[in-house]
Design a protein that fits this description.
single chain; 378 residues; alpha/beta; six-stranded parallel sheet; 15 helices; 14 strands; globular
């Protein structure tokens, strides 16, 4: 028995596991994707690395309907399974277990940190199950990674790359050599997505010859992340009057209220409110077609940045070192000298100073710079 055990590095410590769980080249790989739009975008460098490391494997993504559409044309995946747990409850869970078991996956790459993600792979009989040992799921994993101080203020993109690196080490025996620069997420809007967005903009009478600026005034899971509606309204008016821009409000159905508050506070007409009116395909196409997005720290900011669209993200209670949208034309703005910044509260317990002290004129100045840079390139 003992000659079948070998030491395996599992994050911050050594552990012995049976040799039959290592040094295998997986033919069928299951990736449990993340549930939030921004997190899903941040997994794209890891998916690219996974495809490069296992070019002959069939890679299947298990994702929610919210995020599955991001990967419809992904060159890194062979198949996508929609996991409708929220809509169908426990029925979807057991149906997915049966599906995983039927497909006989060799390796489960668990980007999602939930207990349920590991339980699905374990009940589905996946031989190797690799992810972070969190939420009490340690015993369900064959190979575990552990977070430590080195993860603090490190971008979340590297967490997903760490999981793929462990897959490489376990299955191929190769060490992971991190890039000198942080890899950038990458998305490409398909022709159908761009056409859908173009049709939508024409429906609302937008002029292709004038710059289009999208504003994302909401945040699904945190009121503290929201720049005040009156500031977004003031910014929209300045974009229209000073930069001759066409302004479009975006957001999901849950964020419609934020968008309506912006419209109510505007003194002039001229803004198009598309919040709650776009499919994911239309949103992707719209973010690819627009000249600039100004957004709270939410999923659409990550999508726009990954598409290469100039993106300005307003930060307050969240930590930009760990979750900022990244791209060649992505920038952020935050108020200086706020002692309680990056508190991670979902509701501010005091006066929301990290957001209220960012003035519309400051955001306008940065927006002007990004628009000028964009127009010079095209």
């Amino acid at each position: 028995m003992w000659d079948r055990l070998q030491p395996v590095f599992t994050g911050d410590r050594l552990k012995s596991v049976p040799r039959f769980l290592t040094a295998m080249k997986p033919e069928r790989i299951l990736v449990r994707g993340t549930n939030w739009l921004g997190d899903a975008v941040m997994t794209t460098p890891a998916l690219e690395r996974l495809r490069a490391s296992f070019p002959e494997a069939r890679i299947t993504l298990l994702a929610t309907p919210l995020t599955a559409g991001l990967f419809e044309d992904s060159p890194f995946l062979d198949d996508i399974i929609e996991y409708r747990r929220r809509d169908e409850g426990v029925k979807a869970f057991f149906a997915t277990v049966r599906l995983i078991r039927d497909r006989r996956f060799d390796l489960a790459v668990l980007f999602q940190n939930a207990f349920e993600a590991a339980l699905l792979a374990w009940l589905g009989g996946t031989r190797l199950r690799i992810g972070f040992a969190e939420q009490g799921r340690s015993l369900l994993l064959t190979h575990k990674l552990h977070r430590g101080d080195r993860h603090r203020n490190r971008h979340q993109i590297h967490d997903y790359l760490d999981i793929v690196a462990e897959c490489e080490r376990v299955c191929l025996g190769s060490g992971f050599k991190p890039a000198v620069e942080q890899p950038l997420p990458s998305l490409v809007a398909g022709r159908a997505q761009r056409m859908a967005a173009g049709n939508l903009l024409r429906c609302y009478g937008l002029d292709a010859a004038k710059p289009v600026v999208a504003l994302n005034a909401g945040a699904t899971n945190s009121r503290a992340k929201c720049w005040p509606a009156e500031n977004f309204a003031a910014l929209a008016e300045r974009l229209i009057t000073k930069l001759n821009a066409q302004v479009v409000l975006i957001g999901g159905a849950a964020e419609l209220d934020y968008a309506e508050r912006v419209v109510w506070r505007m003194k002039k007409n001229g803004i198009v409110n598309l919040a709650g009116k776009t499919s994911l395909a239309e949103l992707i196409g719209l973010l690819a077609e627009c000249d600039l997005l100004v957004s709270n720290d939410t999923g659409p900011a990550h999508v726009a940045a990954a598409l290469g669209t100039p993106t300005l993200t307003i930060f307050g209670p969240t930590n930009e070192f760990e979750t900022s949208p990244t791209g060649r034309h992505a920038e952020l703005i935050r108020a200086p000298g706020i002692e309680c910044a990056r508190c991670m509260h979902r509701d501010c317990p005091i006066d929301h100073r990290c957001m209220t002290r960012i003035a519309p004129e400051d955001v306008l100045a940065r927006a002007r710079q990004l628009l000028n840079q964009h127009s010079e390139q095209y």
